[in-house]
Amino acid sequence: MKERPKTSTRLKVESFDQLLNNFKASYFAGALLVQRQMLIDDLAKFFNNSRWNGEDFMLMINRHVVTPEMFLYRLSELLPRFFGLKEIAFFRFHSSAAPAKYNLTKMFNLSGVFLPMGIGSKEHHCRRWLPIQLLKSLAQNKDSEQKSLPQIAAQRSRFINLNEEFFTISLAHGSRLNKATNLSGAMCFRINQPFKDTVKFWDDPAIPIMDVNESCERCGLSQALCSDRAAPAAIHQQAQKIKTREKVLDQLIRDLG
User: Fold this and answer.
1) Residues 6+ apart with CB under 8 A from 61
2) How confident is the model at residue 26 (pLDDT cuts 50, 70, 90)?
3) What is the pLDDT of residue 119?
4) Which residues pair with 187 in a beta bridge?
5) Which residues are CB-neighbours of 38 under 8 A, at least 6 positions away?
6) Each residue of 206-221: b (16+ CB within 10 Å) or e?
7) Distance between CA atoms of 200 and 101, rounded to whole angstroms?
8) Whole-number Å distance between alpha carbons of 44 and 82
């Protein structure tokens, strides 16, 4: 694999082969750094707990001596094969301190459900989603030493207008390379029967349940119901206008018929 970037953050992508080889190298490096059987044993024990415990999750990461992102990435390789958790998704966000901007820098989605990533380049990611909430919390923390320590939380993310719910585990911390940047990663599990059978703490009452959407522009919640709104619901309003117009036309056709 000669054609691949030599830095952990790609400065530019010059070819598809370069991008593919970088993915292969990352996969191989993760397999070397996080020993498979040890992690499987740790996860089996962790999933068998009846209560969510973020400190125990951090202990797993520290035990394997890797970054939170690398740990979540390794989970995505093992969970489908060894735990039957195939409907998962991984996201990584970067945010600037001021003004607050949230950029999706990496993702893969095996869930079959559209997750709140913001389709258009000018759309605003749902601010209720856990990785965004943690980044907002980090931005408010002025202690640089505390910001370097990962924050961890769990959330049951319930999609508005969809009969879908996800269990989200997210970690966020300040960037070691750029003090003005914060990072967050999220592993999302579709709450289906295999997940309920495997993860005993899936319905822990201490885990907050949050209604989320794809982006602010696509969300019909009013400002009174969502204080986190970052942009008007332009796309949602346009869709509603089209539906109303179609309804009026259908009624007119029926009346004329």
Assistant:
1) 68, 71, 150
2) low
3) 59
4) 90, 169
5) 64
6) ebeebebbbbbbbbeb
7) 36
8) 10
